Amino acid sequence: MAGLGAATVATRPFQWIAPRSDFEALRASIKGSLILPVDGGYDRARRVWSFNPHTDARPAAIVRCADANDVVKSVTFAREQSLELAVRGGGHDILGASTCEGGLVVDLSAMKRVDIDPSRRHAHVGPGVLSGELKAAAVPFDVAPVLGCNPSVGVGGLTLGGGIGWFLGTHGAACDNLVSAAIVTADGALLRASADSNADLYWAIRGGGGNFGVATELELQLHPVGNVVGGVVAFRPKDIRPFLRFYRSYMKAAPDALTVELSIFADPDPTIWAMVCWSGEPKSGLRVLEPLRRIESPVADTVEVVPWARFLAHMPQRTMLQTPNTYWRGGSLSELSDTAIDKFASSIERAPAGWQLGIGHYMHGRICQVPPAATPFRRTVGQSTNFISSSWGDPADADAHMRWVDSTWEELHRVSQTGTYVNYLSESSEAAVRASYGDHYARLATIKHRYDPDNVFHRNRNIRPA
Known about the structure:
Number of strands: 18
Mean pLDDT: 93
Structural class: alpha+beta
Helix content: 25-40%
Strand content: 15-25%
Low-confidence stretches: 1-14
Largest sheet: 8 strands, antiparallel
Radius of gyration: 22 Å
Number of helices: 14
């Protein structure tokens, strides 16, 4: 499989760009702001989280929307002017799909509304809210949302693509906890999607990504949370293979309340951080964690019984580093086989400075008990995700860093026997998207045709209209 190395430069097709006067008319019609290439702050506004030669795009304009009406006007404008359309929430997309060359970026980052209904344990959330922001907003009510582990990821994109995090074993995926959503469709309509309204759209957006429209509000189920057992157990092994084999067997026997995410990086020698969250009864959690904490002498162990708020505040975030330039790719493994473990280990031997590997999202418990047909998000017991990341400061170093990421990803991809979790899907081919959705793809394509027959929303893991 061909890599996506920095030496490969795509030839961009010519795209007609609307006259400046039309953009000024759009600027005058919205409550938010319009950023053009001549405006101050443009270079900062166009950057996505994973910024590298592949995602260094220059859109014709960026609309920083203030409300759903701004989104409607922006989508309508892009269609009328035949502009490529990209949608950005947190901007973490692995392929940089939240930006585009010469088109219009609908930037939702300013739509930060969070309303907590403690009696129903629901949250109404704007699409610009980040995972950490929503978690913090829910803390005073002793409840928590079901989201990912990284606090800087956008709630909207995470949830629409599935969403796997600390509570996967006890409360499922983020999309399982989506009660309803407001969606701006390709024709500029603002629809409510729920079990009782536009039920087909509601089914599709719980794992189908941004294929069906722009989410301008999400209503999420929250769950009671008190003390958790959490922290980091850090190791500096001479060889990561024995530890990864232990991790494989340990997670196979893991109770539903346990999530362990691994981050492997140089400090300066290869170091493993096992980031732990136990959401069940604390004494049981401490007992379950004993084998992990004594597998070998840790260089650090911060695991303790703590209130959820303290866990959020003190859990170090090494889910992925970011410097001025970052490139990452992800994948899924049906099992952490000996072959895959060897691939991880050998990749470290040739890794450039700034490298990082991640292994986690081990599927077990509640996330795998949801009926397969309930959502398009696929779940298989024992499946896990991984990411390969590298960061650098000097642009001249890009090629070496990106080649390492690509070669490691390709080796792991060859031993994968499962479709990739959509939020980690690092290739945009139709075959890869079909593999991720499996038997759900045909139904998703039919719904796509109903709500976006012209495939306006195609900067995603695209499901083509049937």
